[in-house]
Amino acid sequence: MKKPETDELKKALENASSIDSFLTENAEAFCSQEVSDLITSMLSRKKISKAALARAAGMSEIYLHQIIGGKRNPSRNRVICICLGLEASLEETQDFLKKGGYALLYARNRRDSILMYALMHHQSAEYVNDLLFSMGEEVLF
Questions:
Q1: pTM for the whole thing?
Q2: How many CA atoms, within 13 angstroms, populate the side-chain half-sphere of residue 20?
Q3: Mean pLDDT computed over 52-65
Q4: Domain with 124 in it: what CATH number?
């Protein structure tokens, strides 16, 4: 069966008798994938080790292993760090954020624009963190 479009879901939500019934009836329509699966898939595609990713993402190997093992759920900032560490494109990052259930980067948001630019220009997580700090924006880590 084809997944309903977003507008169809919004209409069904509006007409639902209860949130419980809506969630039950539309369970297959929600786009949320385990972050650990998304990272594992990207690691395989990018052919990078977990240790190298941890260093490039500005996090400890232990923390990354906990995320990959499903023991920890990273924040949006940490997901962006992982994408920077994987040298993911902006499109790959947006796809990762969407599938993981995180807010997409939004070009009308100043901080998000900085992050988008950094992704487009393959900047390191450490560089991006310094750039955000120097521009008076919330840092990633």
A1: 0.81
A2: 0
A3: 97
A4: 1.10.260.40
